[in-house]
Design goal:
alpha+beta; eight-stranded mixed sheet; 5 helices; 8 strands
Length: 187
């Protein structure tokens, strides 16, 4: 027996469910996992530092680990000397069909959720190596991503890659793990 499924809208009309999934924010903010991950406490730094390979090899390991966790692109930036003693920042970008700053539904927030997951786990892995690794927001993300060569800033924490795709930038992971940098922090 063959069944033909019919949708209540024609193919020329936009899918109302998709519109809701992408653009309508959840009624209860407690249902958004991104904030829960951001508020989770970070673990402690392992007492014994791991034997780190060369900075170039460690950088490739960190980038591959970020890719394993779900990052589309990862860059490392050498920071100017500052008070907190973090010499490097790891910037992770997630492919985004919709800008999470404006598409507030679960579908639009997928890159933000994925970015939180990536940076939470990346920081944990760095601390397991015996080095500091902490997330501190996205306020400088676009400038650092541009310095790392990930793309051109086009919005709040969003860059356009050289091939024209949008990358949503996750929280920056600051670290003292010896890594080869892709660029220098802009002055």
């Amino acid at each position: 027996m063959r069944m033909n499924l019919r949708f209540p809208w024609s193919r020329s009309e936009p899918d109302p469910y998709w519109e809701r999934f992408v653009n309508r924010p959840p009624a209860d903010p407690a249902n958004v996992p991104t904030e829960a991950i951001r508020k989770a406490t970070e673990g402690s730094v392992f007492a014994v530092k791991a034997d780190a390979h060369t900075p170039e090899i460690m950088a490739s390991h960190i980038k591959e680990l970020a890719r394993f966790f779900g990052a589309t692109a990862t860059g490392i930036v050498r920071l100017r000397p500052n008070d907190d003693g973090y010499p490097l920042a790891v910037v992770c970008g997630m492919h985004a069909d919709h800008d999470p700053n404006t598409a507030l539904g679960f579908g639009g927030q997928w890159p933000a959720l994925n970015g939180s997951y990536v940076t939470f786990n990346l920081g944990g892995a760095i601390r397991e190596y015996g080095f500091r690794g902490t997330r501190r927001g996205r306020d400088r993300a676009a400038a650092l991503a541009a310095a790392a060569g990930l793309g051109t800033p086009v919005g709040d924490g969003v860059v356009r890659t050289p091939n024209g795709k949008l990358l949503y930038l996750a929280d920056i992971t600051y670290t003292d793990l010896p890594l080869a940098a892709d660029g220098e922090e802009p002055a």
